[in-house]
Design goal:
Structural class: alpha/beta
Order of helices and strands: EEHEHHEHEHEHEEEHHHHHHHHEEH
CATH superfamily of the largest domain: Dehydroquinate synthase-like - alpha domain
Helix content: 40-55%
Number of helices: 15
Shape: globular
Strand content: 15-25%
Distance between the termini: 31 Å
């Protein structure tokens, strides 16, 4: 069994604000009542979350409140300006605290706004998706899109306090839960095999009983915390967390994001493992062991002669590339990953098609 150490709160060291706190909360209304009683708090809430949790959020109905559209198309400079206008209409001041309630898009927009408004205002965060709770809520990064360029703009700006409430997970679709599980698996595989196996062993239960996800969220954040406290600004060791992402991001691109992020990453890890196997970095036994876990979270997708060139083109645009070489994270086995540069040639093309012929979910 994995470690699954639980703590109700912990701090993350940061070069930006010394440290920030992550707290698991059992009663959402109690925490909202505390914050809502402060005159210098402005809530910025995902409008879908606001409607789904209207009863719980009634306790802050007399507070200053801005609703945000969580669509990817609104993760932009123009929409950020619109939210800033709404904040100005609420008489926002330098000493105000922005409290964001929503998923990753809400997080990105509020983190970005808080870093530029009055040259910086404090913000706090209630992540409402599994992806945000197990991954993006810590690490300091914010990213917004510019024109057709995804995540081109951004800052390093962590919230001062993160409140994780598992009740938000009850409204998520199975697809959204699978996406979060994919992200957790990528952290677990950088550490070892045990936690990833625990996820696989409990997979169906986790989809149905969302409260069981809490210890896995805690462990995922603990693994990320260890690395970001060393490399907050992503200049060295933090690159190991790109495991599965190079190949997964390209899948998202060519499917127009129809495959959820974490499930695309699950395919990406499996493909990275297959390439590692064929480079002699892992054995068939190691590949099969990791594949048996990942296949539970892999959606239908296949690389074919019809889409492989489009896929390779998407890979060629990855920011980790160097010259004509593809920069990606491969594995020497669970718990040992390394950045490798690959030639984008016919051999790689054939290897990817071979992977899909053998292991794709139809």
């Amino acid at each position: 069994m994995g470690d699954l150490r639980m703590s109700e709160s912990f701090s993350v060291k940061s070069n930006i604000r010394d440290s920030y706190q992550v707290q698991f909360v059992g009663n959402l209304q109690v925490q909202l009542e505390i914050l809502g009683g402060q005159k210098n708090v402005i809530f910025i809430i995902d409008q879908n979350v606001y409607e789904l949790f209207l009863q719980e959020l009634k306790i802050i109905e007399n507070s200053r409140l801005v609703l945000i559209d969580p669509s990817e198309k609104f993760k932009t400079i123009d929409y950020s300006q619109e939210i800033i206008r709404k904040l100005i209409n609420t008489d926002v001041r330098k000493d105000d605290i922005l409290v964001a309630i929503g998923g990753g898009i809400t997080q990105d927009v509020v983190a970005f706004i808080s870093s530029i408004l009055f040259r910086g205002v404090e913000w706090r965060f209630f992540p409402t998706t599994l992806l945000a709770q197990c991954d993006s809520c810590i690490g300091s990064k914010s990213s917004i899109n510019f024109e057709q360029f995804k995540n081109l703009l951004g800052t390093f700006n962590p919230p001062s306090h993160i409140f994780i409430y598992s009740g938000f997970l009850t409204t998520l679709s199975e697809s959204e839960i699978r996406s979060g599980i994919g992200e957790m698996l990528h952290y677990f595989f950088t550490k070892g095999i045990d936690l990833a196996q625990d996820i696989a062993d409990s997979f169906d239960k986790l989809l149905d009983e969302r409260s069981l996800l809490k210890p896995f969220i805690s462990e995922s954040l603990r693994i990320k915390k260890e690395i970001i406290e060393i490399d907050e600004f992503d200049t060295s060791i933090r690159h190991i967390f790109n495991y599965g992402h190079t190949f997964g991001h390209a899948i998202e691109t060519i499917t127009d994001y129809k495959i959820p992020h974490g499930q695309a990453i699950s395919i990406g890890m499996d493909l990275a493992n297959y390439i590692s196997l064929n480079k002699g970095m892992i054995t068939n036994v190691q590949f099969d062991e990791m594949h048996s876990i990942l296949k539970k979270n892999i959606p239908p997708f296949k690389l074919t002669n019809e889409n492989i060139d489009q896929y390779l083109h998407a890979l060629s645009k990855d920011k980790k590339n160097k010259g004509g070489l593809l920069g990606c994270i491969l594995t020497y086995g669970a718990g040992k990953v390394e950045k490798i540069f690959l030639n984008m040639d016919d051999n790689l093309r054939s290897l990817m098609l071979s992977y899909s012929d053998s292991y794709s979910v139809k």
